[in-house]
Amino acid sequence: MSxxxxxxxxxxxxxxxxxxxxxxxxxxxxxxxxxxxxxxxRYIDESSVTGLTSNPTIFDHAFKNSTAYDxxxxxxxxxxxxxEGLFFNxxxxxxxxxxxxxxxxxxxxxxxxx
Length: 114
What we know:
The protein is mainly alpha-helical. The protein has one domain (18-109). It has helices at residues 14-20, 32-36, 39-47, 56-64, 70-78, 83-109; strands at 25-27, 49-52. The longest helix is centred in the C-terminal third of the chain and has 27 residues, at 83-109.
């Protein structure tokens, strides 16, 4: 029996296969840990993730379940930020960082993600 070798030098992951078939893959999650660890960047580069969603509940969960926000929260409170202003500063910082990583996808595909 002859050994079977891939004809394509690149071995596709299941997420790459979905992407190649036209499926856009988005995460329904954003956390500072996901950003700081490089996991989101790796998902973009290696797993064909092309976007993410966010909402106040996702951020509320992230703020409550991670120490990654603690220093920034203390700094913002010291500057007088509380409530909605504090929330938006934290959320927009994370979203801006994520958007920077998704920018090449936007540039490549225009307003879409595919």
